[in-house]
Structure prediction request, 714 residues.
Amino acid sequence: MMGPVKPGGGFQGQNFLLIFLIIVIIIVVIIIVYFVIKKRKKKKGQEKLREHAYKGIKSREDIKSIYTPTGTSTSENKNEKNDTMIKLENLTKYYGKYLAVDNVSFEVHSGEVIGLVGPNGAGKTTIIKMIAKLLRPSSGRIWVRDNQGELKDLNKKSRNLVKLGFLIDIPAFYKDMTAYQILKYSALLQRYPREKINDRIDELLKIFDLIDWKHEKVKTFSKGMTQKLGMIQSIIHDPEIIILDEPQTGLDPLARIDIRRIIKEFHRNGKTIFVASHMLAEISEVCEKIALINFGVIIAFDTIDNLERGLRTSGLNCKLLDPISPDQLGSIIKKLTERLEPYLDKDLDVLVSKIPIKYIPQKRSFKIFYDTTDSKQTRAEILKILVKEFESDFTVVSFSKPKKSSQLEQIYSRLIAEDKVEIELSKGGVN
Amino acid sequence: MEKFEDGLKFAYLEVKPVIHTFVFELKKQWKKFVGFLVISVLIVVLQSFILYALFSDSLLPTTHSDYLSGGLIFLTSFIILFASCFFFAGIICAEFSDKTGYILFPKINKYKLIIGKYLGNLFLEAGVIAIFYFLVGFLSYFFYDQFSGTLLIRYFISFVFAFLYMIAMSSFVTFFSSFMRSVNVTIVSTILILFIGFNISQMFLMMLAPEIEPIYSLSYISTLITSILLIEFPDPNYSEISLQNFTFRTWLTPTIEMGLLVLFLYITIGFILAAYLFKRRQL
Prediction:
């Protein structure tokens, strides 16, 4: 160590430059070392990601442990349908001059699973963002139930509202933070009891198969894992209302099934769930009611069965053992039409089909459009006739309603098409 | 008494999200803190120690206060500016550009979020400055054998000014972050304004209206940090050079009162505007 230098003259410019150069060199060396280490870490992370085989979300028993049931089972919920959890009242949102949401009103009751379905840009996310207070409505009000069971205006200072959990869009997290740090912060902000946070995080991470990634930075996560983390943060505080915007975006098919299973499990335990999606299959499997939205307007809001009844027609698939030869087809269809005449849909929409009985040779099946006024009875009668009276013509191997999702697709495209026609007519009227 | 206790409990509950955000921010930004700390230590060691200890032709400043003000130049000219830009540029706009706000805003009030984040970043930046001051002060003790009395008090006052200057600069950057679209654009634009813009405008003012003191300029205000260490505070606070028929006036440093006033204005206006714009901004 050198001894103290005696005070003397001034500051030397040349030496200052030298010092500056040394500083720059040292900083450059530090930066290079930092990037080398970072690159190695990234490589390790990628290897880990590759090793991370998808194992699926755990069993139903495990899922059950992630929430505190609100005390109502599904059957009990049926009696409490009058408990409004969220009420939208003439909700309108403009982006500049563009009307994104137009006078939307509906209610979500306790224990219901409501799906908000619509094409891209229909206004689904805007509605959810307004419920999450990320956007201010241009007009209208949002009511949310408080702990005393009263509805409170969300945009006025209101305390003790029931807990809400949100998953909006593909979630984005602070990339340099670990899953644990993010979830802990999230739980603390939602006033989840501090002493229970660690257990809760572990529990959820295990169920979503992310426990090995607890202390890994989010930047090393795949898209699906990030989506799962988003799902976890939305339920970490055990909310009574769960609002999910496109929860299955970016997930692989197995993870999608798991998410649906979790939503169903929440429903079974009395949670109120509001899901926005453009994926009809996803909605039809988990939701009991759907709100169809197009150009910011709710064009239908009911149960899938009621919507279907509203269309007053439904298709039946009747699969045959052997194909029908083209020579016989005309006579068989004629006979079928005569025999099933009382049950067929007389006002069949041309958008759905031009004739009530269709034969699809590729599938070796008939599609029969029937009147849904007394749908169960009608289906039974049709089946009886097909089996008994057409025994010599064909053998029925299966007889089924189309999948709920394809029914919904039919309703969806029909309503959207009608809405389009209405809009065009109204435009024409104005002109 | 019960009401008072309830009030305290309520206040604690209201402050809690700010504390959680503060702690989270410390964890989030610690890398930047370490980076600036390494740079600061390197600069102090090289500029205030190696320069005098290793090079024979580099002689120590005559007075202790000259040594200290020389040691702090790097801090006032570069470190505070760059640290403020890097710590605060993303404080608001990153929540929007990275869309991280989606996971935060329904859970925490925007005012509480910005206060927590602001305090967290300030704490880290203040830590860098405090360590820089400590090291320069410690090394000056090594070279000058003593460090006490008036100079120590002045050194402490200088630290207070540096701290206020840092908050003012941080508020300025936070304000920019509240309406800018991306972190990088915020960093570049604030560095350009603070580093070049203010100095160029000062030069223009010196030529066009030399009698007007550039009190709007943060870089001018920052001269207080080192001027306060001088044995004699500059009075008058300008110097004049006459060339032919023209007299140039160079403003050396603002008065303490003026400096404090401007810093407080920058701090309050910058932060209030930033918080207001943040509240209005939608994802």
In short: The radius of gyration of chain B is 21 Å. Residues 2-280 of chain B form one domain. The mean pLDDT of chain B is 88.
